[in-house]
Amino acid sequence: ISREIPVGQMAEQRNRTFRAQAVVLRHVEYGEADRILTLFSLERGKFQAIAKGVRKIKSRKAGHLEPFTHVSLFLAEGRNLAIITQAETIRNFAGIKADLKLTGYAAYAIELLDRFTQEEGRNPELFQLLVETLQRLEDDPEPLTSLHYYEVQLLALLGFRPELNKCVACGKKIEPVDQYFSPKLGGVLCPNCNAKDAQAWRISMPVLKYFRFFQRSAYSQVRGRVIPAQVEPELKALLERYFTYLLEYGLRTPKFIQAV
Fold it and tell me: Which residues touch 7 (CB under 8 Å, ≥6 apart)?
């Protein structure tokens, strides 16, 4: 005996399921065999979902739901969390996972995105930047350049793009001499105005030039660029310090990168 399902009920069932293309940011163990995953998706931005039974030996989903993996998901709306019913890897970034240094870079990129975002809806530009950065870290000859480009572009997408071409106090165009960087005022202070922020950090002109280059350039112009050895440590320290100021606490992954 067959029973027809009312049209309204069928529509409700369809509305309770959805597809998502996502990157796995992190996961925590839950219960005896489940995991709760934090995902950043094209369709919904950041959200959490549960993968039931994924820690069982015979689970078919486990290999698709590791951190850094770019995955296609089919999910059902649950009472508190979405439930992952199907998962298929788009790209697993095996080259990153096989290299400790690249793993550190990828973990840093993901930690930045995770710390700065909430579950507040879709942001396709951020999703695209994350996926492209993971691809670049794996494929490009200068992964550290790719990482710094990501940091600078991330600042812009988050609404923290600093002013690097004119003094944020007097408005005059920056001259080719060492300057000061004020996170509080949102950009560069010229030597005549550095007293406007006693906590401003000195920034050399070569570092400022690379900062501006990453800020204004398409990645095709940046790819493969080798950052000079005398510039890289200062640029790295400046960006990490700026992120720490914005977040009001330090990140965990830079210590891991330094250790490896």
Answer: none
